[in-house]
Amino acid sequence: MALHVNANLALRLVPDDARRPDAPSKLDPRAQLAAQFIPAGARILDLGGGGGDTLRDMVPFGCSYEAVDRLAHDKGSLIHDLTGAEFPTKAATECDIVVMLGVLEKIADLEALFTHLRFCARDVILSYGPTNLVGGEERAARGFVNHLGYADLITLFDRYGFRVECTAPVSDCEMLMRLTPSGRVAPVMPCNVAVVSDSDAGNFGDRLGLSMINAVLPGEARVHHLTFSTLRERMSEARDDYDLVVVGVGNAMFQPLIGDDIVRILERTKSAIGIFGTAYRELIPRAMIDRVIDRLDLWYAPYEDDVRIYGRGRSNAVHLGDWLIEQFPLTEASLDQPLQIGADIGAELALDRTIQIIQRHKRVHSARLHPLLCALTAAEYAAFSEEPSGRMPGIVSGKFRSMLIDIFGRTYPEQQFFMVDRDAVARYKARVHDNVATMRERVAAMLRNVAVAS
After folding, report:
1. pTM of the predicted model, to two decimals?
2. What is the pLDDT of residues 117-150, one digit of tens each?
3. For residue 158, what is the enclosing H or E element?
4. For residues 384 and 366, is the Cβ–Cβ distance under 8 A?
5. Is residue 88 part of a domain?
6. Is residue 221 in a domain?
7. Cβ 339 vs Cβ 364: under 8 Å
8. Rounded to whole angstroms, how far apart are CA atoms 226 and 242?
């Protein structure tokens, strides 16, 4: 085996006899589908190398890819290497996601394999042709050495502490699955809080964010609202000393919102938190966003992608979830007429009325992120159109992908309706609800500590 560096600058094990000249060069549809299950910024370990060049080339922004290929070409060699003493335990514990495509059916000792996977405690993306889809003779012809149906698979996963996060058919005889391994508000003294938001933009999400932050801050807080666009002009109106500065109300940060003015307002506070995600990440100067996050006591990121890319290794980075889902009750739509939400949704209607209109429709297509999130709590089918960058062709916000992966464990093709998994939405809403409650407690504790120190 030789050690090579792939296109993502990640170490990759490559067989000594290099890739065969007759190897197929076309895209692998199984690997294409698997890429939809992978979040941005993830460290991927491809056991068996089943994802190949397709998966390596299609992983999202910020990912690293390492493949452990067959150590020999004899039948069964992969089985011994994955379940025996040479299982890549160190690589598996250091990655975020283990990928096994076309591998599981050819492993004789599944118990040993899943013992290793349970120890590593990482998400697993795998493919499998269950006996419900592939019969005995065909299994033998394909070289399958184990024979599990759907019920057997669920039993195996459950026994080793995994649950199925999401599934999708690869073909009529194969399924792709993502597995994932199965915590008192006290009174505070009066305090001065600055909230910096994008509320003057007047869009749906930023308007909702203002009501959310008011529900999180203690009742004794005196709130001074500032906006990103006017921060420089209104800096003279800001207090010289805040007890807490809140950067963002669930909005996405991008150029030119990230700048020196945010750093200046953070220099005027005893404590600070951020409640923001990121968009158009390819255009964000890393040094500038690092300067902002470095000055925060806690950064509450709406999407796990944000934490992986900008918060990895930081003790102050927390995956909150998109807290605006707290504003949308779970309900059932009643109108068959499709609803098309454009990019220019404005402030003509009251927020509660806008939510009601969106939640009445069974099929919703949205060009804005948070109207889509609202629709997911009621609609049967949903679709989206990404927000392209006005600064560079070919760059999109990336927010839709991040949100969908957090909720459903995967993204979906743009401008194509997908069926809404209502159970997944309910689970996500419950998680975010708990996270917001914890955030409320931590903010109160932070302000208590500031009051004691004063």
Report:
1. 0.79
2. 999 999 999 999 999 999 888 999 999 999 999 9
3. helix 150-159
4. yes
5. yes
6. yes
7. yes
8. 13
